[in-house]
């Protein structure tokens, strides 16, 4: 992997980590508000107890995994999936195709913005996560090539 791609992966890791740590911490610090916001969503409230634990936990786990190079590719994949799901959900809310009402986004992580800007932020972070995953796959491929060359040299010259 080129130095440029390595730097891009590092920057993407930092950006996603900052987003997830901020969002998870916001949810935990205002847990009552988070539960209320989840109950305000146009879905069955029986999911709320599971989601209010699962979402921040997944965000923290992805953030931790992004710190370590051996787990970074998996963390980018995990982040891509989470951001894709969040993005699809916001898109469904905005389309009113499934739910007849658009709930207030005031209980969300960015309470000052509406669902439209939220959708664009999610799309951007989904793209960043996916691009990070692709670059990590490339890095892993490059590492395997380097290791293959080193093994061949060691075998050829009995090092």
From TrEMBL:
This protein's GO CC annotations: membrane
Gene Ontology biological-process annotations: methylamine metabolic process
Membrane topology category: Multi-pass membrane protein
Keyword Membrane applies: yes
Subcellular location: Membrane
Main subcellular localisation: membrane
Keywords, sorted A to Z: Membrane, Transmembrane, Transmembrane helix
Domain Methylamine utilisation protein MauE: 8-134
Protein name as it appears in the record: Methylamine utilisation protein MauE
Organism: Chitinophaga arvensicola
């Amino acid at each position: 992997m080129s130095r440029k791609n390595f730097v891009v992966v590092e920057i993407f890791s930092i950006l996603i980590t900052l987003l997830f740590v901020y969002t998870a911490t916001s949810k935990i610090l205002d847990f009552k508000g988070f539960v209320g916001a989840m109950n305000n969503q146009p879905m069955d409230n029986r999911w709320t107890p599971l989601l209010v634990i699962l979402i921040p936990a997944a965000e923290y786990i992805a953030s931790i995994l992004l710190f370590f190079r051996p787990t970074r590719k998996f963390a980018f994949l995990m982040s891509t999936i989470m951001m894709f799901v969040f993005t699809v959900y916001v898109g469904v809310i905005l389309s009113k195709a499934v739910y007849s009402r658009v709930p207030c986004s005031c209980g969300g992580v960015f309470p000052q913005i509406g669902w439209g800007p939220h959708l664009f932020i999610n799309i951007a972070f989904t793209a960043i996560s996916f691009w990070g995953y692709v670059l990590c796959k490339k890095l892993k491929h490059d590492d395997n090539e380097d290791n293959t060359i080193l093994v061949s040299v060691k075998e050829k010259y009995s090092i």
